Amino acid sequence: MSGPVPVHTRRLRLEAVDPTRTDDLWQLHQDPGIAAWYGGTWTRDHAAARAATMAESWSADGIGKWIAYDKVTGELVGRGGASRTTIAGTEYVEIGWAVREAFWGRGYATEIGRATLSFVDEVLGVDEVAAYTEIHNRRSRAVMERLGMSFVGEVRATGLVEGKDGVHEDAPFALYSIRGRSAAPS
Ligand SMILES: CC(C)(COP(=O)(O)OP(=O)(O)OC[C@H]1O[C@@H](n2cnc3c(N)ncnc32)[C@H](O)[C@@H]1OP(=O)(O)O)[C@@H](O)C(=O)NCCC(=O)NCCS
């Protein structure tokens, strides 16, 4: 059976993650700008496990995470997409992104985020989509704001704490959401 078809945005080709994308997923998570926000680089085994989980999300929910490639050159740019996630005890359709540091400042995360909102609206038609990140991840919060998402409040999750080493189970996160068909800006 064939998997989800690629989604094309203005500059990117978005390919659903399945086990065949493990190497690219691993490669992305060797990037220092990404590793800094994920508690370090991923091992190949971890990338393989994550790729398998992402593939399950695509088959179970019809939504999931993509790897983003430059549409013209095929270069690996980043990743993003949507998944069903429990945040502070509540189940949400959550969107997210990560872009190689060399590509920051060019709007790629916003492009992935917009495509994700449209895709979720088309496939699920849900009326609320959430995103969350460590409270001090200003670049990711700025993406949420550019997508028209609103700050809902602070929640606790496993992640980084500003000024402290390592990953903490009760790190402060900023939760954002967007509702209704406005969740799919054109
Ligand atoms: C979070 C992350 C994806 C944000 O990347 P980013 O490059 O800052 O975000 P965008 O791709 O939306 O680019 C926005 C920047 O490009 C500029 N830009 C240029 N063209 C643009 C366009 N067409 N559309 C939007 N912004 C554009 C914006 O002005 C903005 O510039 P600024 O950084 O000077 O404010 C990136 O920092 C990252 O991968 N971090 C590590 C992983 C991570 O934290 N992921 C989030 C976990 S929740």
Automatic annotation (TrEMBL):
Q: Which InterPro entries match?
A: Acyl_CoA_acyltransferase, GNAT_dom, N-acetyltransferase
Cross-referenced Gene3D superfamilies, in alphabetical order?
3.40.630.30
Looking at the record, the residues that make up the N-acetyltransferase domain are: 12-167
- Family annotation (PANTHER family): GNAT FAMILY, PUTATIVE (AFU_ORTHOLOGUE AFUA_3G00765)-RELATED-RELATED (PTHR43792), N-ACETYLTRANSFERASE DOMAIN-CONTAINING PROTEIN (PTHR43792:SF1)
PROSITE patterns, per this entry? GNAT (PS51186)
Protein name, entry field: GNAT family N-acetyltransferase
Q: Which organism is it from?
A: Pseudonocardia xinjiangensis
